[in-house]
Amino acid sequence: DTEVTQTPKHLVMGMTNKKSLKCEQHMGHRAMYWYKQKAKKPPELMFVYSYEKLSINESVPSRFSPECPNSSLLNLHLHALQPEDSALYLCASSSRQGLGGYTFGSGTRLTVV
Amino acid sequence: GEDVEQSLFLSVREGDSSVINCTYTDSSSTYLYWYKQEPGAGLQLLTYIFSNMDMKQDQRLTVLLNKKDKHLSLRIADTQTGDSAIYFCAESDTGGSYIPTFGRGTSLIVHP
User: Fold this and answer.
1) Residue of B30, B45, B104 lying closest to A102 (CB–CB)
2) Which of A97, B21, B25, B108 has the highest count of CB atoms within 10 angstroms of its CB?
3) Smallest CA–CA separation between A88 and chain B, in Å?
4) Gap between the Cα atoms of B101 and A82, Å rounded
């Protein structure tokens, strides 16, 4: 299995909702990442997990809460989002330190209304 | 800080070669990457090159690195309409956090 699987593919949520994005990989990668991508822009790093521990938080607002339940799963819990949080959310994984590049999922297209 | 620059658009005719260029500023960049993003999809790693290499070839893709000028290029031979996508250049530095810095992406449009 050489894929990163993200669910759901599309999500529409109101500003008072709580929802979660899920990401799964079975490549034995021990680093996993959340990125946010706006249209026509490069992906922006949000969080990095290394060996299931949060190693980097790029000053992301607390309405985004990551979780890594085990080495194959990564979640992003969403609460009280704003319309400007609408974007494509990408999960990625890599072997240690990612020097051979990242494997990205196909993303969750999030719309906040 | 680190900076990666790319031109925003490139238009080519099907069957021609495409050359996408990238410049970077971090002199300690060790790994340089090319990713492809098709509409509605995630990023796909196409190839990467280590900074002690000048060239890497993989089927229709050729990567050239000029470390002195901090210039990276991706050549796609016999460009097809399926190559239409956004191409991101990225660099990572083994002396730092290893997290890649991405360029803004070059939108490649292939005309029949």
Assistant:
1) B45
2) B108
3) 9
4) 26
Give B108's contacts (C-beta < 8 A, 6+ positions apart): B10, B11, B12, B18, B20, B76, B79, B83, B84, B85, B86, B87
Chain A residues within 8 A of B103 when measuring between CB atoms: 42
Q: What is the widest separation between alpha-carbon atoms in chain A?
A: 40
Q: Do B97 and A99 touch (CB under 8 A)?
A: no
Structure confidence by residue, pLDDT tens digits, A46-81: 999 999 999 999 999 999 999 999 999 999 999 999
Nearest residue to A75 (alpha-carbon basis) of A83, A64, A84, A85:
A64
Distance CA A81, CA A77 (A): 11
HSE-up (13 A, CA, CB side) for residue B39: 4
CB B22 within 8 A of CB B89: yes
Q: DSSP 3-state helix, strand, coil percentages of chain A (rounded to 5)?
A: 5, 55, 40
Pair B76, B18: CB distance under 8 Å: yes
Alpha-carbon span B44 to A101, nearest angstrom: 10
pLDDT at B9: 97
pLDDT band (50, 70, 90) for residue A96: confident
Where helices occur in B37-100 by DSSP H, the ranges are none
pLDDT score for B96: 63
Q: How far apart are CA A112 and CA B6, in angstroms?
A: 31
